[in-house]
Design goal:
Elements lengths: L8 E4 L5 E4 L4 E4 L8 H5 L8 H10 L7 E3 L5 H4 L2 H8 L2 E4 L1 H9 L7 E3 L5 E4 L2 E7 L31 E7 L2 E6 L16 E5 L8 H15 L3 E5 L22 H15 L11 E2 L4
Parallel strand pairs: 3-4, 4-5, 5-6, 10-11, 11-12
Antiparallel strand pairs: 1-2, 1-13, 2-3, 7-8, 8-9, 9-10
InterPro entries: Metallo-B-lactamas, RibonucZ/Hydroxyglut_hydro, UPF0173_UPF0282_UlaG_hydrolase
Protein name: MBL fold metallo-hydrolase
Pfam families: Lactamase_B_3 (PF13483)
């Protein structure tokens, strides 16, 4: 029986959170729904997952069951809510040892967590997910690892990077790459050919022109996508039920990034579009 391309749907949920499903298998990247105020983060106040916001986001996103939840790295805006999501809708939490320690701190059972490494492949129904280890965007504020169970509430600085990963989704109807962090490992994606690239652009506007060109070369030119959807550009201190806005100018230069994307899109002929929160697309049809 032929698999229809329209069966695969991807939903953007703010920051670099993306839900992918074909109606049978469901996979989530990150899942950061608490989105505490940046002032609270900056003041170093302890933060914990907001269970109400998590439940609301799962409901609005139509996420009733997961097979897997992959965490890009172990900063607060990627991993903090992930164990609570797995508790609610099932699946296995996949991430670095740091991510696993966040799961342990949330009393997630060992059977519900898997440590990932560069090159790992995992199958979920018709999906295969391949792991690529990479690098955090320049200016990592909280580098290092989480070496013991992290019990919330905790300061944002307790959420250390751990490993940093991108995820290639392969399905009989198409291929997509979710690349959350705006950095690159030279030639890491060489030879890939994807239909859709979820491209991390956080802090990209604050980098040099040389870095921006190199980033485009080693991500976009390497993977030759039919469509680019930017991620990790929004002000993640604002609730997801409010209109998304870019990060404050003091933390990023979104206008410069947008100019770069517009210019590169025109030069390459590859369309760039921003997906709205909770908007679902059929990327392979």
């Amino acid at each position: 029986m032929a698999v229809e391309a329209a069966s695969v749907r991807s939903t953007f949920l703010g920051t670099s959170s993306v839900h992918v499903t074909d109606g049978v298998s469901g996979i989530l990247i990150d899942g950061f729904f608490t989105r505490p105020s940046l002032l609270r983060v900056a003041l170093g106040r302890p933060i914990a997952p907001d269970l109400g916001r998590i439940s609301d986001a799962l409901s609005r996103g139509g996420i009733e069951h997961l097979d897997a939840l992959f965490v890009a790295h172990s900063h607060l805006d990627h991993v903090m809510d992930s164990p609570e999501i797995v508790k609610r809708v099932g699946g296995v939490l996949y991430g670095s040892e740091s991510t696993v320690n966040v799961g342990r701190g949330a009393d997630l059972g060992e059977q519900s967590m898997t440590r990932i490494s560069d090159g790992d492949k995992y199958a979920f129904g018709d999906f295969t997910v391949r792991v690529f280890e990479g690098a955090h965007s320049p200016g990592d504020r909280f580098p290092g690892t989480i070496d013991e169970p992290l019990v919330p509430p905790a300061k944002a600085s307790a959420y250390r990077t751990g490993g940093c990963y991108s995820f290639l989704f392969e399905h009989p109807t198409g291929t997509m790459l979710v690349h959350p962090s705006a950095n690159f490992v030279p030639n890491k994606f060489e030879g890939l050919d994807v239909d859709l690239l979820y491209l991390g652009i956080g802090a990209l506007g604050a980098q040099s022109a040389q870095f921006q060109n190199d980033y485009w070369h080693h991500t976009v030119e390497a993977t030759r996508p039919d469509l680019i959807i930017p991620v990790h550009w929004d002000h993640f201190g604002r609730p997801l039920n409010k209109k998304l806005r870019p990060m404050p100018r003091a933390l990023d230069n979104f206008a410069k990034t947008k100019e770069l994307l517009d210019r590169k899109s025109a030069e390459s002929g590859i369309p760039v579009r921003f997906q709205k929160p909770y908007e679902t697309i059929t990327p392979f049809s």
